[in-house]
Amino acid sequence: METELFEEEKKEPVRYPLKQARREADRLTFVLCRHCKRVEIAGSIRRRRPDVHDIDIVCIPKSASELSRFFFVNAIVPTGGKKHLKFKLDGIPVDLYLATEHTWATLLLIRTGSKEHNIKMCRRAQEMGMKLKANGEGIILNEGPRLTIETEGDIFEALGLPYKEPWEREA
Question: CATH code at 88?
Fold first, then answer.
């Protein structure tokens, strides 16, 4: 009985149609472009899922003050840490991941997902004696140096895998 009550109380996350979420994400990236060196929509929008529960964006800010100006001008109060900010845009949750040139490709890959695809990529790296760092640090050889990663394609290549487009990364 208690289990049933608990399950009844669990709420499914609100989902938004891809078209609506994409429109809001495009609007946001347009504004962010003025304050960032690079901006890209990631997550389930980039994978073209029919409905999404949030907007994921990876960006490289021009500077901390530029990004602060964006939030101030748009009356947005972000929460989260220094590398990941959360806020809502017209009611839709937004996760904004702050990258550097060094972390760009890995963050874009990981934040695009899917979760299952990321797990497969990390397992593949382990099988090859490497670590794929989800925080964006890239691929690190065990007990050794970090590989130079500039694009998502570089990650697939380093892992000996054919490149997959974002919408092919469900598993």
Answer: 3.30.460.10
